[in-house]
Write a structure and sequence with these properties.
heterodimer, A: 488 residues, mainly alpha, 5-stranded mixed beta sheet, 24 helices, globular, B: 517 residues, alpha+beta, 6-stranded mixed beta sheet, two-stranded antiparallel sheet, 10 strands, 61% helix
């Protein structure tokens, strides 16, 4: 009977995550890049740029951590190069993550009900649901962290370290969150360390060993370019403000220079970004600003969860999850685009825990009934926003239509000398490669990245006779694909 | 005895910070209006429109509650009509706020002296309180009245408490409602015997004229303009949603009720956002604080978290205060408003102080037994740096960053006009920055008797209007070509729009003077 409830929850999780996953939402360039690189590895042993079994995939010049590509190899081998196969690893791991979340809460609180409620809430949570549906490395990395944390409390040191390190290989942000969280786990439970430090030596050695490749990559190009592009220092705002404020002083004294120092302003900018993750509007009303990371007219959590959350935090007083809550936005706050629902995804775990705790504390059956009703309405609202409005409001967010246009382009490819493809939606080349299942051998020979833009992203402008931008003058015998019309 | 010395110090410190450089920032419209009306009452016993001793002043057709004008009377009488006399009531009352907060905390928290000390000191140095105490803001008075009324209530002086609550109705438009709701809810938490004759009768009697005004005068229109519900979703957006999904879906998930409640929550949460509290401040209106900082000092946000996290049942009073006050500004069209929610500063200070206390007492004892002094010093230094940072932004940068918002130049330009008024038969003054006439009246100390005759307000919208002419000065948009022998005052925008050459103009802050012989 106990298991039945859990199975029901997991079934619901699977249903919500798998429905129409091949087509909705449409594949975005990052997913396509992951999928295509896995495909390329299967066929040639090299990535799209001709590098053998890399740790970081150069991709658009953003050097994606390779973990997800390797996870996608078996699924793509099995199901072929389709959106479904690309997304399957994350789907599986998000479900496993939910299961381990249940185990973790059960282990920590020794309360099966609380664990079940937590699992149920995270199953229907818009935030987790959104990033489960799609090849989001962030969600996979989060699942690794949950699993690792569970094994830490189970005192299985090797597994704890293994999964934490795995998350490092999967997603950029995890490289900040996982070590800090792991360290705080060890510190707050230091008695575990002291009483049997001998048993920790081997796992620690093992951890350092498997960390080495990542550490080395930091010194090469791969690990750090990403931060240069999207890091907090890429934002010129504080720099300009420092100049503006200094100019307002007639004669600049040393004191003014100290006060309007750009380092101080960057520190404040970091503070603002960090705390913006706790803005209730961000969490409950508006969500992220990036259309790809949100649904219209909806926050990251249901508004009904706010009182539950506050009540839960007040009642639970759980130090471990509080620490987690404050560590989670660290990585996100170091980038210039904050708050970011994607990079601060680990926040969802402590938030859901406290919400679940709040629900558990409710004693009156009437409130329970009311709560369930409101939840059902909220879920309906979310599903409506996700399935009906999302695609129509921001079609550009998920590159709709590529799966249809690419076969057409391929069929007429030889009839034209030149084909021009709009670059209005970022990185069209990778979607073309993905949906045409372009032979990786051929692309490795001719791929050429453009110089990086100010965020450090590059793209590819030419494949065979297809050019991925629209020039001002169009030669004869060419096909132009714009976002709205075809001009043959 | 120790307390007395402490409180005297607190008062002096608070007063100095609020009094320092009192002419800065430049006078705002409302301040000038309050001042001139006080002056008018002193001279003639009537307001600028010739009303005898009104409770509510028409002013710019925004119907200002009159308490502040009457508070300013003695100061205007003693010091004459200038910036100091009109700001002094707010400065003094603002300096009393920390002291009465001290008493209030002691009344509620059963002799928790430490907390009261910390809260009082914090309030002295808190940007939110300082910015509103330095200028003649009515909302500052309201905040003080809330503290005073609750304090009197807890000392069982119900009659006095009710009188203060009655006065609140005549203090500030925007905060009236929420203050009342708050007080009644709070009292019902503590004692059910609130509806004593001693308490309810005076409140009712004092409230009668307001009630009358709300029901039978059209000045309640202002409510309609400011209200959130007067601004439904645009038709275009509605059609977009219907196009996406159909009418039924729209009715179910996107109806006006959901739209309004989303907007409401958005505004409500804005008042608790880290941006408003520490990093940006009131982003809707630059006049409500210093640029690039919030209403609290930076370290406060951490202690506020800590204080709220360690909430205890005895703190219920301040929690309700914290949660209910932003309601009244959440129901208005502005996405955030420091002015309407100014009394929020008190519970914010309270919980920050409580956070600091917990930090000092518990955490240091448990985790940092050795470096106690070091932690005190560190905390003090961080707060000091943060305060200096704020003070620099406020005193050196706010007007320079937003000169237009701070109405920079009205004083200088009016002094120039007054000096040269007789030389020119016609003077044109731009009304680009709003209500130029009141500055002219204020700085020229125009005899109210003469003005009352020619005061004709041209009503522009429900809550604003303007005066077209006083003597030979016309207040209107200025445009080229100008008549012979005239003095004209342009705004920057008007010069740019009409493609004029800046070389020919004399500059006074935001204003540019052109003299045609």
């Amino acid at each position: 009977m106990k298991n039945l409830k859990l199975i029901l929850i997991l079934t619901l999780a699977i249903a919500l995550r798998f429905i129409n996953i091949n087509n909705y939402p449409a594949l975005n360039p990052d997913e396509a890049a992951l999928g295509y690189n896995a495909y390329s590895l299967i066929l040639t042993g090299k990535d799209e740029h001709g590098i053998s079994w890399p740790l970081h995939f150069k991709s658009f010049g953003d050097y994606k951590p390779g973990g997800y590509v390797y996870l996608a190899i078996p699924t793509i081998k099995l199901f072929g190069l389709t959106p479904f196969a690309t997304r399957l690893p994350n789907l599986i791991f998000s479900i496993i993550g939910i299961y381990y979340f249940y185990l973790l809460i059960k282990l920590l609180s020794k309360n099966n009900n609380l664990a079940l409620i937590s699992a149920l809430i995270i199953t229907i949570s818009p935030w987790h649901l959104h990033f489960s549906r799609g090849a989001w490395e962030a969600c996979t990395a989060l699942s690794f962290i949950i699993i690792g944390t569970y094994y830490f409390f189970k005192d299985r040191k090797f597994l704890f370290i293994l999964f934490y390190v795995l998350s490092l290989y999967t997603y950029h942000s995890a490289r900040i969150i996982a070590p800090v969280l792991g360290l705080s786990l060890v510190i707050t439970n230091y008695y575990l360390l002291i009483t049997n430090y001998k048993k920790w030596l081997l796992p620690l050695f093992f951890g350092i060993l498997i960390c080495l490749p990542v550490l080395f990559s930091f010194f090469q190009n791969g690990g750090t370019t990403r931060f240069g592009g999207v890091g907090i220092t890429a934002d010129r705002g504080p720099l300009n403000r420092s100049e503006e404020l200094l100019n307002q002083h007639g004669n600049v004294k040393l004191v003014n220079r100290v006060i309007h120092n750009r380092r101080l302003l960057y520190l404040l900018s970091w503070g603002q970004k960090y705390f913006s993750h706790f803005n209730l509007n961000y969490l409950f009303i508006n969500g992220d600003e990036v259309p790809r990371s949100k649904v219209p007219d909806m926050g990251l959590l249901y508004i009904i969860e706010l009182p539950l959350l506050l009540y839960g935090i007040y009642k639970a007083k759980n130090k471990f999850f509080l620490i987690w809550l404050f560590i989670a936005p660290l990585a996100s706050s170091l980038t210039f685009q904050a708050p970011s629902a994607l990079r601060s995804l680990p926040m969802v775990i402590p938030l859901i825990y406290f919400i679940a705790y709040g629900i558990k504390e409710i004693k009156k059956p009437i409130i329970y009934c009311l709560l369930i009703t409101v939840y059902l309405i909220s879920i309906a609202y979310y599903l409506d926003a996700y399935y009906i409005h999302y695609q129509k409001r921001w079609p550009f967010a998920w590159n709709y239509g590529f799966s249809k246009i690419v076969p057409y382009v391929n069929s007429v490819k030889n009839d034209y000398d030149n084909i021009y493809f709009t670059n209005k939606y970022d990185q069209p080349y990778i979607l073309y490669l993905f949906f045409s299942k372009y032979p990786p051998h051929d692309i490795q020979k001719q791929i050429k990245l453009t110089p990086p833009d100010k965020f450090g992203f590059s793209t590819v402008e030419k494949i065979d006779n297809i050019t991925f931008y629209i020039p001002k003058q169009i030669p004869d015998k060419s096909l132009v694909i714009d976002d709205k019309m075809f001009i043959p | 005895m120790k307390n007395k010395i402490f409180l005297i110090f607190i008062f002096i410190a608070a007063f100095l910070i609020r009094f320092y450089n009192y002419q800065y920032p430049p006078l705002l419209w409302d301040e000038a209006a309050l001042g001139y009306n006080a002056y008018s009452i002193l001279e003639t016993g009537k307001d600028e429109y010739g009303q005898t001793l009104p409770l509510i002043f028409k002013s710019f057709n925004d119907y200002k509650p009159g308490l502040y004008v009457y508070l300013a009377l003695p100061f205007v009488k003693l010091l004459g009509l200038n910036e100091l006399s009109i700001r002094l009531p707010s400065i003094l009352i603002g300096s009393l706020i920390p002291i009465f907060l001290f008493f209030l905390i002691l009344k509620i928290d059963k002799k928790n002296y430490k907390l009261a000390y910390i809260a009082a000191i914090l309030t002295v140095f808190n940007p939110f309180n300082i910015t509103y105490s330095r200028l003649a803001w009515e909302t500052n008075i309201l905040t003080f009245e809330i503290i005073l009324a609750t304090y009197l209530y807890f000392t069982n002086k119900h009659l006095w408490s009710s009188l203060i609550i009655g006065l609140m109705l005549y203090t500030y438009q925007g905060g009236k409602l929420s203050a009342l709701i708050l007080i009644f809810i709070l009292f019902s938490i503590y004692k059910s015997k609130i509806f004593t004759k001693q308490f309810i009768v005076p409140v009712f009697l004092l409230g009668l004229p307001i009630l009358y005004g709300l029901l039978f005068n059209n000045n309640s229109n202002r409510l309609k303009v400011a209200s959130l519900f007067s601004y439904p979703r645009s038709l275009q957006e509605t059609q977009l949603i219907i196009k996406e999904s159909g009418q039924l879906n729209y009715n179910l998930f996107h109806n006006q009720l959901i739209y309004f409640s989303r907007n409401f929550f958005q505004r409500y949460f804005n008042h608790f956002s880290p941006e408003f509290l520490t990093f940006v401040g009131d982003w809707q209106n630059a006049r409500h604080g210093a640029p690039y900082v919030g209403v609290l000092l930076f370290p406060s946000i951490i202690f506020l978290f800590l204080g709220l996290f360690n909430y205890k049942k005895e703190q219920k009073f301040f929690l309700y205060w914290l949660l209910l006050i932003p309601l009244s500004s959440a129901f208005t069209r502005d996405s955030v408003s420091a002015t309407r929610s100014m009394s929020l500063s008190i519970p914010l200070m309270y919980f920050t102080a409580s956070g600091i206390q917990i930090f000092l007492e518990k955490n240091i004892k448990n985790y940092l037994p050795a470096g106690r002094q070091a932690v005190y010093c560190l905390l003090f230094t961080i707060y000091l740096i943060s305060f200096i940072y704020w003070a620099d932004l406020y005193f050196n940068h706010s007007v320079k960053t937003h000169p237009a918002d701070w109405l920079f130049g009205y004083k200088e330009v009016n002094q120039y006009i007054i000096k040269n008024q007789k030389k020119y038969p016609q003077i044109y003054m731009t009304d680009f920055y709003g209500q130029p006439y009141i500055y002219y009246l204020f700085y020229s100390q125009y005899p109210p008797k003469n003005y009352q005759k020619q005061a004709k307000l041209i009503i522009k919208s429900v809550d604003s209007g303007n005066i077209g002419q006083i003597d030979n000065i016309k207040f209107a948009p200025v445009s080229w070509p100008l008549p012979q022998n005239s003095l004209s005052v342009f705004s920057y925008d008007e010069i740019v729009r009409q493609n004029l050459d800046f070389k020919n103009f004399k500059r006074f802050g935001n204003f540019y003077i052109y003299e045609k012989p």
